[in-house]
Each structure stands twice: as structure tokens, then as C-alpha cells.
């Protein structure tokens, strides 16, 4: 299994930037810098997947690390904005509920022996759009000169992001049943005595 790859390094860097984001937001009270960092982390979400395919560096670790980095960054980002009132509460709760539900479902499915689910195009698109929407909302509450424009653009990214994210969650219902059945069949095949 390949561990030391460029995409894995990017995913790990994203995870390490989560505390930096929190320090900027709460320790330094610099909403503009925190918004920019969160936006950059959103862009690197696309970059690591692209590089993994382009450089032929797709790995099992990367398939696990990338969604963990996505979920953790979004949950911390959205949760912090909900705490500060920097994003509309209804939208933040919908986005947060989806992220937490998917995260818990993945853990439960893994515990039940399901095969690992791959991220769908809809899921990736929803996450990508939300990665832009929420930093824009945070930026709209900062001292940036273009803060009002960011508030408008946040809605442009958020609404399709939520639709794509919830559609992906619906898709995962069917995919999770198949993954659970496949995982159980694999375990039965391994446990069966060879003739």
C-alpha cells in the first residue's frame, strides 16, 4: 500500500490546517484570514483527487483520508460559523446535519462489515460548493471591502451545494445496502472452509 504520495500529503496538510483555522478565527479574531484559509482548503479538496488520478497515486489510505479531511474541515468550519452566527442558521444546520449523518453512517457501516463506499460525483460536487459558500459567509461578516458581495455569492454556491449533497446522501442509501451485502458475502467466503 502506497502511503507517501503527493495527494495524501495534501489531505494530511488539510487536516493540520483545521487548528490553524480555529486559531485565526477565535484566537486572532481574524475572520477574513480564516475565511481565506477555509476557501483554500476547499480548493485543495479538488486538487488532491485530481493529482491522485493524474499521477496514478490513488491509494487505499488516500481514499480513506480524503473524506475524513473533507468531513472534519466542513464540520469544524460550519460548526464554528454556527457558533458565531456568521452563516444563516437554517442553512448551516442543514449542511451540518448532512455531514454528521454521512460521517456516522460511514463509521456504522464499517463496524457492520460493509465494504468501503467511494465518494460519488454528487457528493464531491456538493462538498466542493459548500467549501466555497461557507467561507464566503464568514468573509461577509469580516471587514473586507467586498464583504456584501460575498454574502450574495454564498447563496449562489450554497443552494446547489445543499441539493447535490442531499442527493448524494440519498444515493448512499442504496450504495450502503450493496456495500453491506458485499462485505458480508466477502466475510462468508473467507470463513468458508476451502475444499
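Q: What amino acid sequence fits the structure above?
A:
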Amino acid at each position: 500500500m502506497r502511503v507517501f504520495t503527493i495527494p495524501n500529503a495534501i489531505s494530511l496538510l488539510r487536516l493540520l490546517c483545521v487548528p490553524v483555522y480555529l486559531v485565526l478565527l477565535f484566537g486572532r479574531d481574524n475572520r477574513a484570514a480564516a475565511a481565506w484559509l477555509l476557501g483554500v482548503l476547499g480548493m485543495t479538496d479538488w486538487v488532491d483527487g485530481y493529482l491522485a488520478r493524474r499521477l496514478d497515486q490513488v491509494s487505499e489510505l488516500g481514499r480513506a483520508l480524503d473524506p475524513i479531511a473533507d468531513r472534519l474541515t466542513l464540520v469544524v468550519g460550519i460548526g464554528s460559523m454556527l457558533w458565531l452566527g456568521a452563516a444563516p442558521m437554517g442553512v448551516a444546520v442543514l449542511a451540518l446535519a448532512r455531514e454528521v449523518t454521512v460521517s456516522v453512517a460511514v463509521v456504522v457501516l464499517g463496524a457492520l462489515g460493509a465494504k468501503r463506499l467511494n465518494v460519488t460525483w454528487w457528493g464531491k460536487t456538493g462538498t466542493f460548493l459548500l467549501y466555497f459558500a461557507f467561507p464566503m459567509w464568514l468573509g461577509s461578516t469580516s471587514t473586507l471591502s467586498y464583504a456584501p458581495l460575498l454574502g450574495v455569492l454564498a447563496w449562489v454556491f450554497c443552494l446547489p451545494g445543499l441539493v447535490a449533497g442531499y442527493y448524494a446522501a440519498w444515493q448512499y442509501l442504496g450504495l450502503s445496502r450493496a456495500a453491506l451485502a458485499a462485505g458480508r458475502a466477502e466475510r462468508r467466503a473467507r470463513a468458508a472452509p476451502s475444499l
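Q: And what stands out in the fold?
A: The chain has one domain: 6-181.
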